[in-house]
Write a sequence for this structure.
């Protein structure tokens, strides 16, 4: 079996605050191979972005405690120095942020910002960096790139700014690309264009992609594998088809039930998940989803509220839930049948 390009093992990210310790990520493990896309999905506050900031080494060490293991091409990142991380960021690994306008400097041209990243990691001249910036703008579909390279961010539309962010992230041909909800603020047409662009560029570069989102429709379009997070933990893992068509955790079931099915009847009422995500300052004991779970009373002995369910993964598939397979077949039958063709 080949060694994964990215391997995260028992990652914990805890923040020190005036109110106490926030357990933002609390024991997370996953692997990612080159050329594959892992979709990480969950509500706000589930730990998605915190996980990927830890991979990039962007947390403030003064108030952040990291534990576990993050291996990028066999290089340990948690213990890496800031100098090592700076060498890797933008070069071997890169990130597309959600808000391109906030992430781009209003005082510098698009070309200068793309070129700066390239110069830092290659030591090339300004002229060479400009040529590279024009090439990248062309690759991401910016019209007249030799002219638009001298424009400022405010002169680009939202979709074009996002394309420029992608060009900046890919300018050094990174082997790992983290996309943090890059299409959230875009209309559906531009969103589809950006998704197609990412898939085309992945085929061209063979990049491993982590795609963070709360939108399961986006996951269905771009991901190979899916990791569902809740309360700083992984509650379900599997291939896209396994997770979206045959969920094994009540939280995943709730996420799917709260969005319209693209391949089913349009008159099926949506079923929002009751309650709110947990406070990670004082998270619930046992399964963190149990206060909102409609099936918690089906498990004998109150185990859901007292015992953390193990995430047992077999061939990449697993769910952290105390319900037995028989109970899941009994409780989830209509849903699973409706989405399995």
């Amino acid at each position: 079996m080949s060694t994964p390009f990215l391997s995260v093992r028992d990652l914990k990210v805890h923040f020190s605050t005036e109110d106490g310790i926030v357990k933002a990520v609390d024991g997370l493990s996953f692997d990612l191979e080159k050329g594959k896309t892992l979709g990480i999905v969950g509500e706000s506050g589930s730990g998605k972005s915190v996980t990927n900031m830890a991979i990039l080494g962007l947390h403030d060490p003064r108030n952040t405690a990291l534990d576990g293991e993050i291996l990028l091409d066999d290089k340990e990142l948690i213990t890496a120095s800031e100098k090592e991380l700076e060498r890797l960021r933008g070069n071997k690994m890169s990130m597309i942020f959600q808000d391109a306008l906030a992430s781009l400097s209003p005082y510098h041209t698009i070309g200068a910002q793309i070129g700066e990243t390239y110069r830092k990691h290659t030591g090339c001249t300004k002229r060479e960096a400009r040529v590279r910036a024009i090439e990248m703008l062309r690759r991401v579909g910016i019209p007249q790139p030799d002219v638009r390279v001298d424009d400022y961010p405010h002169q680009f539309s939202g979709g074009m700014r996002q394309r420029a962010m992608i060009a900046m992230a890919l300018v050094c041909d990174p082997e790992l690309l983290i996309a943090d909800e890059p299409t959230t603020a875009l209309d559906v047409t531009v969103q589809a264009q950006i998704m197609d662009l990412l898939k085309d560029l992945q085929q061209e570069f063979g990049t491993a992609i982590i795609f963070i989102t709360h939108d399961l429709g986006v996951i269905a379009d771009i991901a190979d594998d899916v990791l569902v997070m809740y309360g700083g933990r992984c509650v379900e893992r599997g291939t896209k088809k396994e997770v979206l068509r045959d969920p094994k955790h009540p939280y995943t079931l709730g996420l799917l039930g709260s969005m319209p099915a693209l391949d089913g009847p349009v008159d099926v009422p949506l079923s929002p998940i009751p309650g709110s995500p947990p406070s990670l300052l004082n998270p619930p004991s046992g399964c963190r989803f149990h206060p909102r779970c409609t099936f918690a009373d089906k498990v004998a002995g109150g185990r859901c509220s007292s015992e953390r369910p193990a995430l047992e993964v077999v061939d990449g598939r697993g769910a952290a839930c105390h319900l037995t397979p028989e109970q899941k077949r009994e409780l989830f039958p209509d849903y699973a049948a409706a989405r399995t063709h």
Notes: Confidence is low (pLDDT under 50) at residues 335-341. The radius of gyration is 21 Å. The chain has two domains: 1-92+175-341, 101-173. Residues 24 and 50 are 7 Å apart (CA to CA).
